[in-house]
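Troubleshooting: if your tokenizer reports a length mismatch, compare against these two reference records.
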Amino acid sequence: MSQSNFSDADKAFFKDGYKMAMEATKDPNDQQQFLSVVKQQYQAMDGLIDALSAQAARQQVNIDCRKGCYWCCHQPIYGISHEFVYLWKYLQEKYSEEELKPILSQAFNNYQKRGRLKDQELLSSKAPCPLLKDGACMAYDARPMACRIYLSMSEKSCRTFYDNPNDPSNHPALLEFPLRAGQMMNEGFNKGLKMASIKGREFLMEEGLLIAHNNGEAISDEDISKNPLFNVND
């Protein structure tokens, strides 16, 4: 993505993400520092969203997102390598191996279907996120940026898009600013990783979880660049 097309706000969020990545990779062998900075990135975005939500309320603009509303959780969800490192660590700490099995099973089943779809077919596909359970996210605190910045002003528009994904006139009524801010912060973070010779890339949720699982084999906490999520060919 060319930075020549960035607005001043774009540049600011990109720079924030870049600086965070440089801080995260000061010592490639310090995975705790890496995870801590990813958490800081999410906290920064959550703070921005809280401020936007408060402003929206003052201006009587609805934000219909709430626990138990999960139409968006059936859409293809994307994340970047560092997000799946953080997400998988969270899942391992919170759930037992037995509790992780249905998550991985759903991820495998979804990817068997979605991994073969062409772009437009993929965008229109609907399947429950592997982390969706009883209408809520099992890893809400560690969810990827794409989930955090998806703020709808109309649950009805999300339901309509869920019911009729192939109708080009159907679009969820989303707030644009957090979408762009989160995208730019992630772009900057990924750029910072590349400057540290750590190659991140984008994955579907299902693929990212399966790679993070690493066929059940242990992943060394030493040298974050050796994590399989950073060693997948495009």
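Reference record two:
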Amino acid sequence: MNSAAEPSAQHRPTHTMPITPTAPHAPGPATPAPGGGAMIARQAIMDGQQVVMGYELFNRSRSRAEHTAASDVLLVFTALSHAGSDEVVGKMLIFVNCTHESLAGGHLELVSPDKVVLEIPSLGHVAAQEVQARLPILAELRARGFRLAFNHQVLESAYAPWLPMADYIKLDMALLAPDQLAVLVGYAARHSAARLIAEKVETAQQYDMASSLGITLFQGYWFSRPTLIEARLLSPTQASIVQLLNLLRSQATTAEIEEVLKKDAGLAFNLMRLINSAGLGLAREITSVRQAVLLLGLKKLFRWAALLLTAARSAGSPPAVGQTAVVRGRLMELLAREFMSPEQADQAFVVGLFSLLDQMLGMPLDSALGLLQLPDELAAALLQRDNLYGRLLTLVEACESSDDSGFDQAAQSLQLTNQQINWAHLQALAWADQMAQA
């Protein structure tokens, strides 16, 4: 696994490890969404003739202080579930802010890359090796077809390895003096193939200056202010999700899967939202649940349903249970990749995700697992901890507690270093809120 500058090996990861937030671009206070919806702000990016080519999206359901890597993941999921509907972005490109911790998240596996531009934050004043360490993930995303946007700091010498991957470079008109802007535009033209976007354009003078330098894309109050849209996802019942997971695990027929989806409006609504979104990049609209099942495929459908289960809480379950389960699943998957096959890593995700099923469903764990018809090996990992999956789960649980000796023993038995565990934990935390507001 490639990683950035590693956290100190002297510090064991904790579940509450903070992730540095990126500052929201859209100003103004957060607006709570009634009824559990997510408030999304969009701001147009357009050319000199005011033809819109895309929208940058912001999560406005949270205040600036609550903005986290996990909330960025939630924004992507919600926006892509609604992309293609006129009230959000229509058929335009979607520009979404990301954190480095969230870029490896599995939510991007459900996305057609040609509809999404990932805005990559700079790292501040960092050593060149940290820039280099993050290069493989960026290269992989671009190889999959995602377009990448950077701010003007990508033109600094420390970020030279990233510059060839830039499809868009944003130049902040509120920060850059005219002479700085001219130098950066010239340098970008000579050393990259990126299209330049003048952002925070608030006056005619700023627009004229940017345009005279050859910049052709613009964003800012001079053209349009961010507008708010409430995006809704319905919450399906736990029983329906469990039934769907069982059918997917046993590779049931399309007709059987379709029947479960049709019986729960929340499941059907969310699936049709996702499958018809611009984010999946389908050439034609899908008009039936059966078509949606066939096109998404059993593996992706299982991952989607499993994440939904963490959000469909029973009345008595603590609100953090689903988030913790997602963190566990992702962390186990990432650690399993260090010494197991991709298929086994998928299984590790399932073990971690379902390790809190007793709390999510309000029943003993053995009874809850009886509902799911899991393979014996996975059930044994959850109930007896007597195989590799079980030892991974023990390690992940130790990450959440103050059991230093248990953590050290589990890490040593799996031959995993503190650096590997810390970095995987950072990425896993970005999943914590992914489905929390569904």
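Descriptive notes for reference record two:
- The CA atoms of residues 352 and 393 lie 6 Å apart.
- The mean pLDDT is 74.
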